């Protein structure tokens, strides 16, 4: 079951990262990674072509209060985002009784392959289970996104089913694989 979750005052630290809500001052960092071709497209949205698009997205993050900025400690800047959204398993008979959130993330291309996303996802899962009352997480990836598949498997999610996702901003359908992790 879906439930409200406000991340405004939540701060999660790992060895290399800090996860906390965005501020409008993060727009330049966000534009730096969101404007790189291929980054957004892996998550179903077109890369940003101007800072006003980034500011619009950032405003929605602030309004919805459901997305963490991923801060890289050593570099002192935002390098990605991790959101906790309405879970697709809320409509699934097997899981709909559980307090669930769906994890979505994006990371700056220069930081791919360093194990940062699993570090962030595992920290959010621990916080969610131990502090926020989350009983299950769902997650998915486009079939061709093998980097996300490795993250999801590394974090202990179990494959549930195949699905289709319409990325409205790209005007394109994607085949995806869907996973669940229950407390």
Characterization of the model:
The protein has a domain at 11-137: Gcn5-related N-acetyltransferase (GNAT) (Aminopeptidase), CATH 3.40.630. Helices cover 25% and strands 32% of the residues. The protein has helices spanning 27-34, 51-64, 116-130, 146-154; strands at 11-13, 17-21, 67-72, 77-85, 100-107, 136-142, 158-167, 172-182. A hairpin with a 4-residue loop joins strand 3 (67-72) and strand 4 (77-85). The protein contains 4 helices and 8 strands, in the order ββααβββαβαββ. It is globular, with a radius of gyration of 15 Å. It starts with 10 loop residues before the first strand and ends with a strand.
Total number of helices:
4
**Strand residues, percent:** 25-35%
CATH architecture term of the domain at 11-137 = 3-Layer(aba) Sandwich
Spatial strand order of the main sheet: 1-2-3-4-5-6-8-7
Topology as H/E string? Answer: EEHHEEEHEHEE
CATH class of the domain at 11-137: Alpha Beta
Average pLDDT score: 97
For the sheet with most strands, the description reads:
8 strands, mixed
| Gyration radius from CA atoms, angstroms | 15 Å
Secondary structure class reads alpha+beta
Low-confidence stretches: none
């Amino acid at each position: 079951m879906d439930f409200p979750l406000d991340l405004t005052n939540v701060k999660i630290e790992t060895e290399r990262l800090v996860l906390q809500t965005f501020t409008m001052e993060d727009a330049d960092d966000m534009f730096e990674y969101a404007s790189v071709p291929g980054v957004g497209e892996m998550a179903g949205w077109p890369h940003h072509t101007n800072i006003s698009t980034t500011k619009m997205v950032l405003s929605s993050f602030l309004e919805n209060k459901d997305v963490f900025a991923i801060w890289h400690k050593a570099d002192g800047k935002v390098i990605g985002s991790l959101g906790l959204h309405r879970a697709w398993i809320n409509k699934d008979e097997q899981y709909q009784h559980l307090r669930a959130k769906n994890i979505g993330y994006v990371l700056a291309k220069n930081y791919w392959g360093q194990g940062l996303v699993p570090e962030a996802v595992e920290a959010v899962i621990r916080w969610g289970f131990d502090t926020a009352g989350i009983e299950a997480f769902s997650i998915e990836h486009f079939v061709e996104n093998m980097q996300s598949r490795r993250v999801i498997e590394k974090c202990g999610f179990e494959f549930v089913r195949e699905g289709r996702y319409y990325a409205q901003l790209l005007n394109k359908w994607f085949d995806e694989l869907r996973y669940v992790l229950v407390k």
